[in-house]
Amino acid sequence: MEIYREDTSVVARYADRLSDVYRRHLQCTTLREGAHVVALPAYRGVALDVLDLSSLGTTGTFKDWLAAVAIAECLAHGHRTVLAQSSGNTANAVARYAAHAGIRCVILYPPASRRRILPHLAEAPGVHFVEVDAPEERIKQVLAAASAALDLPVVPPLEAQLEANKLRAYLLRDAALASGRQWDWHVQAVSSGFGPMGLYRGFREIRQDDPGMPWPRFLGVQQEAIAPYAAALTGTAVNEEAPMIEPTLFRRAPGPDLLARMQSLCTDSGGTVRVVSNGRYHALEAKAIADLTSAGVRVTHDADGQVRERAGLYSLAGTYDAVDGGLIEEGARVLAAYTGGSGPGAPLFEPEHRARAQDVVGLVAALTGLRRPAAASQA
Ligand SMILES: Cc1ncc(COP(=O)(O)O)c(C=O)c1O
């Protein structure tokens, strides 16, 4: 059952909460950044709703919001070419929104994320996906080297991510008012944590005008193999030997600034970050899919029968696991964010360009028609 809906664009609806540099060109970048809240069957006495940030989006994940905002900022600064790196979903969103705004983009992604890339997006003029066979840190390094050597901005910057994600708080304030519901917990599968960091920034902003506004406790969910926040906040040991189940949830080393931000939002909201073990995830996945499907939320499968995207399912599996574990208690009401998973099915992407890490700067220079200064040849 649907209990609240913004069909068109959360970003456009709350644009007045953004500063001029993001807002000025938003009408040229927004496409569809919708969201809705649906009710799921209660689980062991816990009322459960899902915030679906996937079905009503342009590329099927909540990354559409930040692409709309970040590309609007690029237009404000007069950038004609941008660089990005991503585990897949941000890549799709940046490609779609940059192409829509007539901005050229070169986007690096690792081979593990090839399944994520939507092939039709690569066909747009000026969009170049480059598969780089290197670990996350190395891809970030060569991206920074290309950015410095060619004087091209990297999108989306942190601030645009946080500002785009803060709009979720305004949506939830209005959804709570309209539906009469109040959520005790907000659950999201986290990688970098930009979603919840932006969300709680939004809640803080709203509280400046309305100090009594209740906000939910945050529960972050991480997979067994990659759980830096759970390790830092709760001392959970990370099992790096465990297979990675969801490549989107990739960030292994968030760094002190992001750790401090996550720590502070958990402390302020009374929340935490937990690991869902691979065994538990596999045990809970079918229930998550069945509950979502019967509530009208699509879970996309690829032609080979594989679930296309598991980040949204992790949020739900993490919710069930936290109820089973006693963290979320009977009588509570939970809002689990379904951040991706309803996007279009797609054939496997055939990489357009592949590069070794040390060749990335040269390739980016060639793709963008910019000359590579000699000093930048060693990434
Ligand atoms: C679909 C989806 N869900 C969740 C996440 C986690 O996002 P974050 O940790 O930045 O809030 C990502 C990206 O990393 C994603 O693409």
Description:
With 379 residues, the chain is an alpha/beta fold. The protein folds into two domains: 2-62 and 159-338, Rossmann fold; 80-152 and 349-376, Rossmann fold (3-Layer(aba) Sandwich), CATH 3.40.50.1100. It is 42% helix and 17% strand. It has helices spanning 10-13, 20-23, 26-29, 63-77, 89-101, 119-122, 136-150, 158-179, 194-209, 228-234, 255-269, 278-294, 311-324, 360-368, and strands at residues 2-6, 35-43, 46-52, 81-85, 104-109, 127-132, 185-189, 217-223, 272-276, 333-338, 353-355. A seven-stranded mixed β-sheet has the order 1-2-3-10-7-8-9, with helices on both faces. Strand 2 and strand 3 (46-52) form a beta hairpin. The longest helix has 22 residues, at 158-179. The structure holds pyridoxal-5'-phosphate (PLP).
Question: How do the SSEs run, as a string of H and E?
Answer: EHHHEEHEHEHEHHEHEHHEHHEEH
Largest sheet: 7 strands, mixed
**What is the percent of helical residues?**
40-55%
- Using the coordinates shown, work out and report the CATH topology of the largest domain: Rossmann fold
Total helical segments: 14
> How many domains would you count in the coordinates?
2
Please give the radius of gyration in angstroms. 20 Å
Strand order of the largest sheet: 1-2-3-10-7-8-9
Number of strands: 11
Distance between the termini: 52 Å
